[in-house]
């Protein structure tokens, strides 16, 4: 997913979330994974076999629905031009409540190649291969250290790779004869500081080779209090320092320490995304309370700051669902833009009449606010981060700040 923007990743994630909520009455939802090199004619003949076998299904309704889904796929495959990573179809009679089902199809062009052809029929869609891709895209920086040595690596998906190994010239605790205790202690502290600095520089170099969009955070391992000492000394590049996601006790500081670190992080790796998001929100709150003028919130203020290129980091709530509509008068051409928050299935309000001539208004353009602001950020070189609502500050972002805030590069007075 290295070619993907944070925004594409967000769209992909949103589609998977949506698919995960869909259920069939029986085992009648079909998931079809087509690898890029698979012959469509082969798939067509396999689907025809599945269609025949479906006639053995006892429930008449399920049988009809499964065969309907397969028919729909067969007609789509007649015109398909398989993209370079393959294509995935999710088709079936989805339970929409009130004793009704709705035949739905979602098509996904995956961010990574489909390896295995799969035909899967169940009461929910089969999403694991795509969910794996979401995970694999993530990269963590790994650093294990004590005062003698340090090892730097990257965790991409489940793959750990070691990049650098450093050793120190820090003298042991026993001083040689002839040195004063004070002088010895001083030299020792200088040597430790120098070693930490070398580690920080080398680790920052390695971590900054990773596209920041895929870079989830840094895991720091080692004995206590060495790692805490390293962390509080801020030896990383400041961009990397911000991404520190967790510290863990590990016994080894050579290459094997890297796997020990990943194991120690274990289940917490899932929560680490959250920690990074938490840090981003805390940066925002820090600016907000400091009165530096470098925090801004609300869609209009953020948009204005984006347009003058002042936004460093744009923070958008993952649960923000809003559209920007351009509304025009059918008679005099008067035009305005309004933002509407919406919930799926909710009916829109009426547009009313033109404030200049009283003629009816019409919507001439609709764009997702997230799309609009992301595009603007790309143009202006601002970084976009999506924040979940799974923690207090993330929930505040959505409910107290309208889902959109930004940390600015400088105070614009907007
Ligand atoms: Zn008008």
What would the keywords be for this entry?
Translation, Eukaryotic Peptide Chain Release Factor Subunit 1, Chain A, 12 helices, Nucleotidyltransferase, domain 5, single chain, alpha+beta, binds zinc ion, 3 domains, four-stranded antiparallel sheet, five-stranded mixed sheet, 60s Ribosomal Protein L30, Chain: A, 414 residues
What does the model show?
Helices cover 38% and strands 27% of the residues. It is α+β, with helices and mostly antiparallel strands and 414 residues long. It has three domains: 6-129, Translation, Eukaryotic Peptide Chain Release Factor Subunit 1, Chain A; 138-174 and 186-266, Nucleotidyltransferase, domain 5, CATH 3.30.420; 295-408, 2-Layer Sandwich (60s Ribosomal Protein L30, Chain: A). Strands 7-6-5-8-9 form a five-stranded mixed β-sheet, with helices on both faces. β2 and β3 form a beta hairpin. The radius of gyration is 27 Å and the shape is flat. Bound molecules: zinc ion. Zinc ion (ZN) is lined by residues 329, 331-332, 334, 354, 356-357, 359. Residues 329, 331-332, 334, 354, 356-357, 359 line the site of zinc ion.
